[in-house]
Each structure stands twice: as structure tokens, then as C-alpha cells.
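Customer ticket, subject: "Can you confirm the structure for Triosephosphate isomerase?"

Message body: Hello, I'm evaluating your service for our small team and ran a test protein. I'd like someone to confirm that this is what the system normally returns, since I don't have a reference to compare against.
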Amino acid sequence: MRKSVIAGNWKMNKSPSEAKVLVEALLPLAKESDVEVIIAPNFVSLPSVTAQVKGSKIKVAAQNMCAIESGAVTGETSVLMLKDIGVEAVILGHSERRQYFGETNEIVNKKIALALQHQLIPIYCVGETLEEREGGKFLAIIEQQVKEGLHNISATDMPKVIIAYEPVWAIGTGKVASGEQAEEVHAHIRRVLATLYSQSVADAVTIQYGGSVNPENVKELMAKPNIDGALVGGASLKADSFGALINYNK
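Agent reply: Thanks for trying us out. I re-ran your input and got the following:
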């Protein structure tokens, strides 16, 4: 049975002191949750947040990492550094990284392999632009991202990978894919995984939906057979809304 995972991507929000207040409010809410809870603070807040949640149900993810372990790469953060402070997961291939920093499927593939090598959970983001959706190319784009991003990732490692389908046109826009639109893509991703690996491997992979997820639409999305969780942006920045999401079935 696949695990349900709801992750909060704080993006470039919350100072370390603000993060401390938010985590204090989230800890009792997460204790009641039936899903796996992950939060992804900014890099400067990671050390204090990992210390604060230690021993709780909350796991901490980084929002990115370098494709190599160490070296003369100014401004980057190593997987070794993340492991050292207790980070357990990492968001990779987010559309904002692709759009603003030129990350390709090939670059993200190297990061996924490195994360798995060091026992970090990769949360691999895929998604189409509005132009690609309206042009009818979205399933082909998603398939390409899945195949290239997971190139040479073994069948043994795949159940450790979380895939997050985030249509670019729904991120931070207030627009959200309908349950049917999201389910169509999630089912397609699982079919692609079955062709790359096997049906049993495909059935073991958690696939999240992301893009303007909130307490009002989460139940419809989570009711779909191939949607196993959510990667949440704005609604993860307040304890009440994120608490409602991680306890959506209560």
C-alpha cells in the first residue's frame, strides 16, 4: 500500500525566527495526522528546523541541492551538508528551478541519483506549462520528464522516490487542475513507470499533486486513485491551513 505524503514547500519565505514559531504550531497538528508530513524551509532555516522537529512525525526536506558532492561550486549546498544536519528529503526539479536557473532533466537526474546514493528521499517535480497543455502536448512532456529525470534509476530505488506532478500554470496562480485533470496525468505517470520498470514498481511509487492545493480542494484530489499526496506552496506557510491539509481526512 502506497504511503500518503503531504509536503509543504516554504520557498523563499520565513526567517529562522518565523520558522521556529510556525514549527511550534505545526508539531501538535502533525501528531494527529495520518499522512507522512514533510516541510521544506529555506536553507538558512534548515539547521534550526531539523533540530526542532527531531523525534516528531515531521520530516524536513531541502528545496534543492547541488548535483555534485563537494568542490569549488560557490553558492551551492552539498548533499553531505544536508545529511549532516538531519535533512531527510530534497525537492528536485521544481519548475521555478527549471525556469529561473535553467535546470534540465539531465541535471535533475544527476541530483536524484546523488540523493538516493546518500539515502535522501527525492521529491521529483514534473509538470507542463499552459502553452504545452493548451497545445495538447502535456502528456508527452510529462513522459519525457519522467523518462529523462529517472534515467538509470534502479527498480530497487524507485519506491524511495516521490514524484510530484505540478502543472506550471497552477503554481501560485490560484488555478488548480480539476480532480479529473490531475488524475489523468497521475495515471499516465504510473503507466510510464510500468513501462520503464514493472507494474509492481509503478504501484509502489507515491505521486503527489501540487499547484494551489488548499483545504477546500484537497479532499477531491486525494480521493482519486492515483493521487497519493500533495506538494503545497502558499497554504503551507500558515499553521491553520497546513494543519487542515495534513488532517484533511479527520
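A couple of notes from the result: The chain has one domain: 5-246. Residues 5-246 form a domain with the TIM Barrel fold (CATH 3.20.20.70). Feel free to reply with more questions.
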